[in-house]
Amino acid sequence: MQIQLKILICGILLALIFCQTPEAAEIRIESQGKIGAGIFFPTGQDGDVARTSPAFQLTAGFGLRKHLGLETEFLYTSVLIEDTELSNYAHRKSTQFALMGGLKIASDLLLDSQSSGIGYLSLRAGFARISVRADSERPQGGWIGRPIDEIENPVFIPSTATIIRQKGLVLSPKVGFLFRMSDKTALDLAASTLFIFDRGDVSTQIYLTLSLARAAWQNF
What we know:
Elements: H1 2-18, H2 22-25, E1 28-42, H3 46-49, E2 50-51, E3 53-63, E4 68-81, E5 91-106, E6 117-135, H4 142-152, E7 161-180, E8 185-198, E9 201-219
Antiparallel strand pairs: 1-3, 1-9, 2-4, 3-4, 4-5, 5-6, 6-7, 7-8, 8-9
């Protein structure tokens, strides 16, 4: 009798677990994508060689719970070099990109909330890479004319360019506020700091960005 009762209880429990309605079994996660631009402010010794520069931002994230989520970000910066640096070179170019990911703490989910704005804090880690190119000769012929000239006159010309690249570890806190535009879209105004660790030194970079954010439910 006891064995039959145990079997009956186990059967009821299994039925309750596996015979849920589709609505109860679904897990909903808020996905959010952002695209925007901003301004890079160099500090410390970097402020002596670089100027305030434009930046481009792509962000993707998931709201796992009401106040907790994940975020990844790609940040590209066209670093403007001071005129006094590499002044002997005719052509100078410096670019930096950072790829980061981490936890996001928010006051609410965009799709769940009816408020006009949502604040958040993100704690990210990743890596950054910077590339500096200097060329003693300015390219001639224009965007279309140069490849045409190379086809018509295929002559080997030794490169006059010097390219230096380096990588570093990044830790980056970010604070932002979403200004609601509709049920699924918002403007994201954010400020972030990048701490870049390289060869025993720590460089600090400050970014101010404005992005367009759009959210959607993902059912699993």
